[in-house]
Amino acid sequence: MKLINDIDSQYKYLDDKSILVTGGTGSFGRHFVMNALKRAKPRRLIILSRDEFKHYEMQQIFRPEEHACLRFFIGDVRDFNRLNMAMREVDIVIHAAAMKHVPAAEHNPFECLHTNVNGAENVVRAALENRVSRVLALSTDKACNPINLYGASKLASDKIFVAANNLSGSIGTRFAALRYGNVIGSRGSVIPFFRKLIAEGATSLPLTDPRMTRFWIKLQQGVDFAVAALSQSRGGEIFVPRIPSMRMTDLARVMAPHLPTHVVGIRPGEKLHEVMVNEDDARQTIELEDAYVIEPAFSWWQRSSYTNDGAQYAPDTFYYSSETNTDWVTDEQMRAFLQDLP
Ligand SMILES: NC(=O)c1ccc[n+]([C@@H]2O[C@H](COP(=O)([O-])OP(=O)(O)OC[C@H]3O[C@@H](n4cnc5c(N)ncnc54)[C@H](OP(=O)(O)O)[C@@H]3O)[C@@H](O)[C@H]2O)c1
């Protein structure tokens, strides 16, 4: 059994739906909107975020005159009343708005919690008030065994969305989360950073630690997994795509074979390796062919839900980490990924 089983028909789940994307002007949001416009026929597609300039820029690419379903909505997930207004007659919410930079969250903990935790609560409350049908919150590998505030705040957010299914009662809203690793080439990530250094004529590339590994996912895969998770969610799952790992030293070598590297030391709040499913989650983890599903520990969860469709539980000792992953990005794949990036 796969999470993505027939992606074209899974996109059809968006047909005739009114969809709100919080953080819709970000990397994920833009790519989701592009796909939703191409591959489905949403009734309304509402993009919510704070900065009017990002809205303006996005409107140059996705012109409301050409796409009658598009609505651009300035708003902050910290503001319940505004979210409540944005969610009127909405069927599906994808919650992508977040403060996601580890150092920024370490230095500005109140701000991180307001957006990532209070924002999550506001999304849940507004979704229940407006009888939204399905909500998918984007999460991160950093939420598993977190050591930095960004990860801890996203773990709190995951807990809020899973527990929200306890509140939906006869309204029936299904809340779920999608947890994945570094999106290749996303804003502020290592690839644009290395590219800039190489273009500026750097004589060596900085590495925090030569042992460091990360999970890697393409933005397109992230969007496809989000659509598949939305279409299949029973409510309460944390979906974890099976994705490859890569060593940071290999990335530096592939991006600049002519340059040496130098070690600058691990940054505050950074891990050597990321984890997506820990030993304690393992008990509740179902293995699909292309993803893991961490089931909620609550008694209302129908434990046979996925196993009825032929999926198996992971072994008790299961641990899904970027270090012990059995799937690794090859140099050829990384070169191809890099070529695809704008
Ligand atoms: N990129 C990755 O490598 C990665 C990996 C795993 C998980 N994720 C998760 O995926 C989600 C989307 O990430 P992304 O890469 O698309 O991030 P992004 O490019 O930084 O976009 C974030 C979006 O959220 C909006 N936003 C921030 N604070 C907001 C607030 N208080 N209210 C409303 N909107 C707000 C931003 O616009 P304004 O600033 O204009 O409001 C922006 O549109 C996040 O939840 C992130 O944690 C990302």
Automatic annotation (TrEMBL):
Residues 19-295 form the Polysaccharide biosynthesis protein CapD-like domain. It is an enzyme of class 4 (lyase). Its EC number is 4.2.1.115. GO terms for molecular function: lyase activity. It comes from the Bacteria. Keywords: Lyase. InterPro entries: NAD(P)-bd_dom_sf, Polysac_CapD-like, Polysaccharide_Synthase-Rel, PseB. The keyword NAD does not apply. Belongs to the polysaccharide synthase family. PANTHER family: UDP-N-ACETYLGLUCOSAMINE 4,6-DEHYDRATASE, UDP-N-ACETYLGLUCOSAMINE 4,6-DEHYDRATASE (INVERTING). This is UDP-N-acetylglucosamine 4,6-dehydratase (Inverting). It comes from Sediminicoccus rosea. The gene is pseB.
